[in-house]
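Query structure, 457 tokens:
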């Protein structure tokens, strides 16, 4: 058997060489005909350089992907490529003048800047697939322009306007009367079936917007199946919950009260009837919501309050132009954070919450965990029932990450250092050193923000 393995290893390079001689070049200058349209230029470069062959769930396995020895390698690369980035929607958006995902933009930009794609084993078989200097320049210029137009915040310093992460805006527009009611309801245990649990029970404002437990304890001592995400800065997520089943804060606020494991109320009619017995609250509520208590008004008020939970940090001050806000060591951590691709998923204003990412791109996280699969591990698949979405989760924000343990969707990782190591091993296939880990931790400390003028603890 050992001889067979050595034979396979020896044969594979020869097989790849044969294929390299048989396969045509993928090089093309087609993109130049779209000189007046950056988006279509980028779409053309992606198509003609063969990127969709490994970064599209609809890509067909090429003939050599069905050959002995080489085939399994090719198919594994295609699966890994699609799990990291499926370019199908992005190319369609570019072709049709539609907006692209901030995360897709960051990933494609990073590829152009780093020259990390395609891998040698692919470009060796498909001549001309490497991005040349002109193609890189087109992609980098496009990314910069799109970021400036769609993703920069008004508070960012001109010097840092093209950073993949952005400082918080000063505020989100809200109705102060609704905010005041939402604050009360957020802390009101009458939203639960037995009047013991409020939103703040699992998302405490004095504990980083979480409860710091692996799984939150709900009504009658029951436990949920995923780790509670922080409520701070949640308004900046594109969707809510790990699996994205709620489109916004209002829809999210409607979930836990009726969840039999969490707050256990039977209906919002039941909740409304209890709240209506409070004459003082009812009087104030009717002034803002003349229709009275119901699911829509209760969740609207809570969502309005949650929009105020923005937590500006020292890092924001740096991005806004204060060069003294961060130390040299913290800036080195930020550089490593970007160099190791962390800022391609933890991107934008919220440094996360903008995409669904596959957990375990390079190797199986769930085999490593060794506890068997749970319903909570299905991720986005629980909503879409699309097999491509199994084990994909909304990327968590890294704001206040130092005070929101434990980590991962399953709450199984207790330290930030271990979370950093695991993400490097399972997402980018790198064993990060203790020194680099320590520097990234220093940077992450700068993301702990303030609420109502006080540093979160």
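Result returned for the query:
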């Amino acid at each position: 058997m050992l001889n067979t393995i050595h034979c396979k290893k020896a044969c594979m390079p020869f097989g790849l060489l044969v294929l390299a001689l048989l396969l045509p070049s993928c090089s093309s200058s087609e993109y130049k005909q779209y000189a007046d349209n950056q988006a279509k230029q980028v779409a053309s470069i992606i198509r003609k350089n063969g990127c969709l062959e490994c970064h599209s769930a609809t890509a067909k396995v090429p003939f050599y992907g069905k050959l002995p020895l080489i085939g399994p390698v090719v198919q594994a690369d295609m699966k890994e490529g699609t799990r990291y980035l499926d370019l199908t929607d992005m190319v369609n958006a570019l072709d049709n003048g539609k907006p692209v995902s901030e995360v897709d933009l960051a990933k494609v930009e990073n590829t152009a800047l780093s020259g990390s794609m395609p891998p040698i084993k692919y470009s060796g078989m498909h001549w001309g697939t490497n991005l040349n200097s002109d193609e890189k320049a087109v992609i980098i210029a496009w990314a910069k322009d799109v970021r400036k137009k769609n993703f920069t915040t008004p508070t960012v310093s001109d010097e840092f306007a093209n950073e993949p992460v952005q400082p918080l805006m000063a505020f989100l527009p809200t109705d102060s009367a609704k905010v005041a009611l939402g604050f009360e309801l957020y802390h009101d245990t009458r939203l639960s079936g037995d009047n013991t649990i409020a939103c703040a029970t699992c998302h405490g404002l004095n504990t980083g917007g979480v409860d710091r437990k692996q799984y939150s304890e709900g009504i009658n001592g029951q436990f949920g199946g995923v780790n509670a995400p922080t409520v701070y800065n949640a308004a900046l997520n594109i969707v809510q919950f790990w699996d994205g089943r709620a489109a916004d804060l209002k829809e999210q606020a409607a979930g836990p009260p009726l969840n039999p494991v969490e707050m256990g109320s039977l209906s919002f009619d039941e909740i409304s009837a209890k709240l209506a017995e409070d004459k003082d609250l009812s009087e104030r509520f009717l002034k803002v919501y003349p229709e009275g208590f119901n699911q829509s008004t209760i969740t609207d008020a809570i969502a309005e309050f949650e929009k105020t939970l923005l937590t500006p940090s020292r890092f924001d001050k740096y991005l806004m132009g204060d060069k003294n806000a961060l130390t040299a060591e913290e800036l080195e951590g930020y550089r490593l954070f970007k160099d190791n691709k962390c800022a391609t998923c933890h991107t934008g204003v919220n440094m996360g919450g903008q995409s669904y990412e596959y957990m375990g791109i390079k190797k199986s996280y769930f085999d490593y965990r060794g506890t068997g699969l749970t319903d909570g591990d299905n991720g986005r698949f629980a909503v879409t029932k699309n097999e491509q979405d199994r084990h994909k989760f909304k990327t968590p924000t890294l704001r206040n990450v130092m005070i929101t343990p434990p980590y991962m969707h399953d709450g199984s990782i207790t330290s930030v250092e271990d979370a950093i190591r695991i993400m490097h091993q399972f997402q980018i296939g790198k064993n990060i050193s203790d020194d680099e880990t320590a520097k990234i931790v220093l940077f992450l400390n700068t993301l702990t923000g303030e609420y109502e003028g006080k540093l979160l603890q």
